[in-house]
Amino acid sequence: MADLLLVVGNKNYSSWSLRPWLAMKVLGIPFREHRIALYQPESKRELLQYSPAGKVPCLVDGATSVWDSLAILEYLAERHPGLWPADAALRARARSISAEMHSGFPNLRQHMSMNVRRRHPGKGRTPEVLAEIARIVAIWSECRGPFLFGPFGAADAMYAPVVLRFRTYEVELRSVCRAYADAVLALPALQEWMRDAERETEVLPQFELYV
Ligand SMILES: N[C@@H](CCC(=O)N[C@@H](CS)C(=O)NCC(=O)O)C(=O)O
After folding, report:
1. What are the structural domains of the chain?
2. How far is the CA of 39 from the centre of ligand 1 (A)?
3. 174 C-alpha vs ligand 1 centroid, how far in Å?
4. Rounded to two decimals, what is the model's pTM?
5. Which residues fall within 8 angstroms of residue 42, CB to CB, at 6 or more apart?
6. What residues pair up with 67 in beta bridges, in sequence order?
7. Number of helices (H) and strands (E), helices first, in the chain?
8. Atom number, ligand 1, closest to the C-alpha of residue 13
9. For ligand 1, atom 11, which residue shows the shortest CA distance?
10. Is ligand 1 within 6 A of the CB of residue 51?
11. Please, are residues 86 and 153 in contact by the beta-carbon 8 Å criterion?
12. What is the pLDDT of residues 80-139, one digit of tens each?
């Protein structure tokens, strides 16, 4: 895995891209990154050069392409065991909440889309969103500290975009959940991602929900 290439989208908006990017940065896995500005006339053609799904993120390891954020984390975990907890029961829970995040929370995605540069306090709080936030609070309430299962791992990478959504929409958190979100926000790698997002100039109207 000497020459990994991670293809990502706009850092302001691409919640899926953030997951493997953050995991690789925090674990110190060397990689080159290639950013594709999404939803431009040439974007799809370029995406398809890397990923048969035509989406980011995509990890290229020599002749092997791995697409879809959870599959990339699993691919990395085969070589970096620290991404999942060593204990089998904890590993099962970490995988369960990661899969739950991967396939669930449609209302949160729709009404609180990731937008690092913006602040929309109080927006997006439909009853369905509030129910999904309550489920996330329940998951985070079992945080072992400083991250969900102690050291930073794949489950934290999966939930990092939610930490950024809660920042944008100023979702109030208390005690252990606040401490968890703050620990994720304080990661130098996440700070780097946020700085990169601030510097981007593309504005994608479909993700600018409340302007
Ligand atoms: N389930 C996929 C979702 C990937 C996805 O939807 N990526 C979006 C950006 S965040 C994308 O590439 N959209 C570009 C397009 O569909 O043209 C994953 O986990 O990686």
Report:
1. 4-81 (3.40.30.10), 85-196 (1.20.1050)
2. 11
3. 31
4. 0.97
5. none
6. 58
7. 9, 4
8. 10
9. 55
10. no
11. no
12. 989 999 999 999 999 999 999 999 999 999 999 999 999 999 999 999 999 999 999 999
